[in-house]
Recover the amino acids of this structure.
């Protein structure tokens, strides 16, 4: 889908400049089932990630230029859930764990982003962390996503063009 | 009211050592008082207990102990609408209602230590993160019960 591909004037999105409350920005993640919710209305853990280690670089898409129906074509997913950018971008989600959203564009999807997790400032992938510490971060990240997942398509805004383009 | 409750032997653990170590037995008196008006909860917990036991073979005493602790904790807190979900790596997600509020605990176990598995628990009230508990299993649950 050409609409999602990088254009010549596009630049990497720096999520550090997006402050809390700047806009109704959301991330969207595709899944392979429509039965996402458990009886308590929370996301079932299997739809967060199949393996805990997959949490290290949590794949999502910025809602805006990417809209849910695009996911069917690009990542072959018919169902999805949403995460509010403010809940993940530069957020101290636990006293020792911070989450950040990083722009990780793909060849066919410029709007692909990743959520990364930091334990006391160290990336959860870092060799400086023990296996146990990494697992601790990822297990927490899983529980946080279960808690913060949104199922209904929210009212959303696109990020300003100046955030991803040389020319407005 | 107490006379209406099922007898304590409803909950059977195969290992006597577990009976002694688990707070389950110790809290029995308290449990009876607290649960006097809510037998349904206990029936539900029995169902849940049996369900989990199917997943964990009886010869695995540490896992059995973990299940006993979990069930004990939920009984003590008089939680309702309890559901368990196993994560792909043998953690538990426990979701329940208490005083009309949703609670969610994500529990996982790390390497085996001298006093059992090291246990980590992250707890949420609704969407609000309440806190983390970690340590050996008994510690974590005792702190939870006190909190």
């Amino acid at each position: 889908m050409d609409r999602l591909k990088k254009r010549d004037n596009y630049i990497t999105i720096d999520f550090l400049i997006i402050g809390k409350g700047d806009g109704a920005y959301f991330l969207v993640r595709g899944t392979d089932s429509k039965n996402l919710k458990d009886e308590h209305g929370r996301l079932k853990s299997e739809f967060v990630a199949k393996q805990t280690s997959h949490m290290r670089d949590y794949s999502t898409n910025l809602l805006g230029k990417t809209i849910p129906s695009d996911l069917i074509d690009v990542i072959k997913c018919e169902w999805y859930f949403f995460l509010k950018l403010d809940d993940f971008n530069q957020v101290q989600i636990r006293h020792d764990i911070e989450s950040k959203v990083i722009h990780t564009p793909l060849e066919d999807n410029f709007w692909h982003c990743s959520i990364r997790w930091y334990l006391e400032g160290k990336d959860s992938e870092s060799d400086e962390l023990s296996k146990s510490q990494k697992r601790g971060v990822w297990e927490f990240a899983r529980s946080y996503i279960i808690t913060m997942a949104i199922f209904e398509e929210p009212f959303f805004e696109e990020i300003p063009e100046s955030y991803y383009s040389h020319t407005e | 009211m107490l006379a209406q409750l099922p007898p304590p032997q409803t909950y059977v653990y195969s290992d006597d050592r577990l009976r002694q170590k688990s707070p389950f037995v110790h809290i029995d008196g308290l449990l009876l008082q607290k649960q006097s008006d809510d037998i349904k909860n206990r029936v539900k917990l029995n169902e849940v207990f049996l369900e989990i036991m199917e997943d964990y073979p009886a010869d695995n005493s540490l896992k059995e102990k973990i299940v006993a602790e979990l069930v004990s904790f939920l009984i003590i807190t008089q939680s309702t609408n309890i559901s368990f979900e196993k994560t792909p790596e043998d953690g538990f997600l426990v979701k329940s209602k208490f005083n009309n509020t949703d609670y969610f605990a994500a529990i996982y176990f790390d390497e085996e230590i001298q006093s059992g598995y090291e246990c980590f628990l992250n707890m949420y009230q609704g969407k609000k993160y309440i806190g983390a508990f970690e340590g050996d299993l008994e510690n974590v649950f005792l702190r939870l019960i006190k909190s």
